[in-house]
Amino acid sequence: MNINGTPTRTLRAHPGQRLIDIIDQTRLPHALHWLRVATLDEAAHAIRAMQVRGAPLIGATAAYGLAIALSSDASNTHLQHAAEVLRSTRPTAVNLHWALARMESLLQPLAAEQRCAAAWLEAGAIAEEDVLQNAAIGQHGLAIFRQIRHRQPGTLNIMTHCNAGWLATVDWGTALSPVYAAHDAGLAVHVWVSETRPRNQGLLTAWELAQHGVPHTLIADNAAGILMRSGHVDAVIVGADRIAANGDVANKVGTYLKALSCADNNVPFYVAAPRSTLDFACPDGASIPIEEREADEFRRVHGLDAHGALSALQQLPVGEAVANPAFDVTPARLVTAIITERGACPPDQLTTLYPEHADA
Ligand code: MRU
What are the tens digits of pLDDT across the range 253-288? Predict the structure, then answer.
């Protein structure tokens, strides 16, 4: 994706120096600040505190976190310890677990002195694959957008929830990849960006769409229904944190309500995700762990004060009870199609794209 006209990735690896640079997403959209991650604890903190976030980027960061950890101690004990520390950071996005399992199965059998170099190479491969897979998702999604546009000429109005864009991946995004592909191909596209309380990832989406020059409008989460009802939405496209074998989709809380509204208004509801988000070992949505995040995310609002400094305001009376589930599950029956790097299919037919998992 372009930042100030320059193609930029969200994660920069420096294998020679045994460290990576990430964008501190807790400071966006107000400041673009790169952060150096040079220790296992810094990598784990970056994921837990959501300095990096979004399922594919969490996976890539965890892989590099393991490589960083092995740079100081490549023993078997430390490999297991580091993988456990990283695995415990966030529960819902399966990409984290997928990336760590892939790294461990490669590294475990190697001699300790071979592990560090192999870990940096494998983390790099995971990052590269993410970029290529997201680009492919963009082309498959673009084909769907063209079909919709063929039926309904004019500007294509796409709605999205949370941030499943460039910032949630190493490059391009999942749900936003088809949007960038459409925009770059000259298709007139406008995006309704849902704010996504309480962490407001919609502001990240608006920020990155603006960087790339894609027309968009921010809406409060609760405005999605009226926009669909009044015919202002041609399709909804979201990302995913984990897709179960039966096609149930875990994504940012509020996704389910959008899918319900789509069903009532005949608006197609698409989910875009790479292979690393598919969990063929998970039978259905009820088996997906849903992260409950700290109440402070809900109690405080963040923004710039009158002096332009980033600050937080307490919005609730002290002692008010708060529940803060970070994700919800959209049942497969509400999903029109899942778009992956291999193409698009109905949610309950994922094995047509991945026949190697047909017996899972
Ligand atoms: O809690 P977050 O911000 O990490 O949640 C992100 C989402 O739910 C995204 O929609 C999902 O990871 C898809 S990202 C390509």
Answer: 999 999 999 999 999 999 999 999 999 999 999 999
To test the pocket of ligand 1, the residue of 169, 241, 278, 298 to mutate (highest count of ligand atoms within 8 Å of its CB) is 241
Domain residues for the domain of 116 are: 2-129
Is 241 an active-site residue? yes
Q: Which of 160, 180, 201, 330 to mutate to test the pocket of ligand 1 (most atoms within 8 A of CB)?
A: 201
Torsion angle in degrees (nearest 10) through CA of 122, 99, 241, 281: 130
Query: Are both 196 and 340 inside the same structural domain?
Result: yes
| Ligand 1 centroid – CA 195 distance (Å) | 13
pLDDT in tens, 202-213: 999 999 999 999
CATH of residue 260: 3.40.50.10470
Does 154 lie in the same domain as 58?
A: no
**For tokens 């999605």, what's the residue?**
224
Letter string b/e over residues 181-212, b meaning 16 or more CB atoms within 10 A of that residue's CB: bbbeeebebbbbbbbbbbbbbbbbbbbbbebb
Distances (CA, A) of 253 to 214, 225, 295: 25, 16, 15
Q: Is 134 part of any domain?
A: no
Ligand 1 interacting residues, C-beta cut-off 6 A = 53-56, 93, 162, 164, 168-169, 173-174, 201, 238-241, 251-252, 326
> What is the tens place of the pLDDT at every residue in 71-100?
999 999 999 999 999 999 999 999 999 999
CATH code of the domain in which 86 resides: 1.20.120.420
Q: Collapsing DSSP states into helix, strand and coil, what is residue 191? A: strand
For 237, the token pair is: 């496209």
Backbone angles phi, psi at 321, to 5 degrees: -75, 140
**21-47 per-position pLDDT tens digit:** 999 999 999 999 999 999 999 999 999
